[in-house]
Specification:
Elements lengths: L1 E11 L32 E6 L13 E3 L19 E6 L2 E6 L5 E7 L5 E5 L30 E10 L3 E4 L6 H8 E3 L2 E3 L10 E7 L2 E7 L14 H9 L3 E6 L5 H18 L8 E5 L5 H13 L4 E2 L8 H13 L23 E5 L2 E5 L1 H8 L6 H14 L1 H7 L7 E4 L2 E4 L3
Parallel strand pairs: 1-3, 2-4, 9-13, 9-14, 14-15, 15-16, 18-19
Antiparallel strand pairs: 1-8, 1-11, 2-7, 5-6, 5-8, 10-12, 12-13, 17-18, 19-20
Bound molecules: guanosine-5'-diphosphate and magnesium ion.
């Protein structure tokens, strides 16, 4: 059985800055040459695996990650400022999927190692200034290149969770209620076989960048009929918890609370002696009830480490969450098997496509559309450059094969122009 946390985010690389058209202005040089600077590159959105993070709960609070655009070029061949990359931290073990517009998905990378970085949305390249377009026959180019748009991608993050903190206690102690009060998210459970009882778990957010997974462990106890059907695989998961909360039912009479405590401890020992060695927080529930308050005062003489909470009024809930978090920091992780990072090429070779819509030939394909978007269409020379590139990529050849003749309309990324072979 696997517990899985997931998040869907949008990543947007910054656009490249525009190249500019400018002219050299020197004393005594009446008509200097082109001196338009290049645009700076846009920032990329980069994921970085971070061993300090354990869940994806942060991504419930922020869904869109956008890097800044590059600065436009300046005069005197000055380049625009390059934008910083936006580095987003994710837990080690996060698998990254690209989500296509038709909702199909593909694995991009498995971030299995601390510090591994992966670009999920590339920033755009800066456009070239007119200084680059001078040739022997064109000494005063009146066009520059616009910045390349940043990539925008929908990405799904997926993380297999280990349960950090287990909840134990008799039926009715208040385990489910506590779990629902502290959970910021309920991860889904993969490959869960049909049984009567679904394991309950929640992601507990302590503060920004600090969270852990809490799981209700009713199935541990033979005496608890609740656990029937949970299965071995769930119990194995339970064995990997690092901290336990032993919840005592504050609504019970004092003697029954003590009897329940002893019984749970015996069953734990019988089931798996290792459980007795786990750091355990002893907690009395339902502190909003007067009888629970009374029991608490008495019990504390015998068990000085006892604390009380109320899931109903949230009394001492935050302290409990912080104490679990602190305990987790000093309790070693169960051994994790690190997988080899898998790298898959981000940009598969993508040819263009040409379709006929009435009299118009429509050319599509990410690379070509990006190029068209970078073209300064107000400039005759800018268009000329695009046309040369199209020829180089084989678009012209394909158009001819499809029966295009001089004067036919060709549309690329919303721009239309007449074709000259
Ligand atoms: N007064 C009070 N009742 C609670 C509190 N927490 C849980 N209960 C009640 O105790 C009963 C058992 O709670 P539940 O969470 O289902 O216990 P579980 O069997 O351990 O999961 C339910 O009727 C809850 O409403 C609490 O903080 N205060
Ligand atoms: Mg329950």
């Amino acid at each position: 059985m696997q517990f899985i946390d997931e998040a869907l985010i949008t990543a947007a690389g910054g656009d490249g800055g525009n190249g500019v058209v400018a002219w050299r202005r020197e004393k005594y040089v009446p008509n200097g040459g082109p001196a338009g600077g290049d645009g700076g590159r846009g920032g990329s959105v980069i994921l970085e695996a971070d061993a300090g993070l354990t869940t994806l709960v942060e991504f419930r609070y922020k869904l869109r990650f956008a890097a800044h655009a590059g600065g436009d070029g300046g005069t005197s061949n000055k380049s625009g400022r390059a934008a910083d990359d936006l580095v987003v931290h994710v837990p080690v073990g996060t698998v990254v999927y690209e989500v296509y517009p038709d909702q199909t998905q593909r694995v991009m990378i498995d971030l299995a190692e601390h510090g591994t970085r992966f670009v999920i949305a590339k920033g755009g390249r800066g456009g070239l200034g007119n200084q680059h377009f001078a040739t022997s026959t064109r000494q005063a180019p009146t066009f520059a290149e616009k910045g390349e748009p940043g990539q925008e991608r929908q990405v799904r993050l997926e993380l297999k969770l280990l349960a950090d903190c287990g909840l134990i206690g008799l039926p009715n102690a208040g385990k489910s209620t506590l779990l629902s009060v502290v959970s910021a998210a309920r991860p889904k459970i993969a490959d869960y076989p049909f049984t009567t009882l679904e394991p309950q778990l929640g992601v507990v957010r302590v503060e920004a960048q600090a969270s852990f997974v809490m799981v209700d462990l009713p199935g541990l106890l033979a005496g608890a009929s609740e656990g029937v059907g949970l299965g071995d695989r769930f119990l194995r998961h339970a064995e990997r918890t690092r901290v336990l909360i032993h919840l005592l039912d504050g609504a019970l009479p004092l003697e029954e609370i003590i009897a329940a405590k002893t019984m749970i401890e015996q069953e734990l020992r019988a089931w798996n002696p290792a459980f007795i060695d786990k750091p355990t927080l002893l907690v009395l529930s339902k502190a909003d009830l007067p009888q629970a308050r009374e029991s608490f005062e008495t019990l504390r003489e015998q068990f000085p480490e006892l604390r009380c909470i109320s899931a109903a009024t949230h009394e001492h809930i935050r302290e409990l969450v912080h104490t679990v978090w602190q305990q987790l920091q000093v309790t070693p992780e169960p051994g994790l098997v690190a997988a080899e990072p898998r790298r898959i090429s981000l940009t598969p070779k993508e040819p263009f496509r040409i379709e006929r819509e009435g009299d118009v030939f429509v050319v599509s394909g990410a690379r070509i559309e990006r190029l068209a978007a970078m073209t300064n269409v107000e400039s005759f020379e800018g268009i000329g450059r695009l046309e040369r590139v199209l020829a180089k990529l084989g678009v012209d050849k394909r158009l001819a094969e499809l029966g295009a003749v001089e004067g036919d309309l060709v549309r690329i990324a919303g721009y239309e122009f007449t074709w000259t072979p």
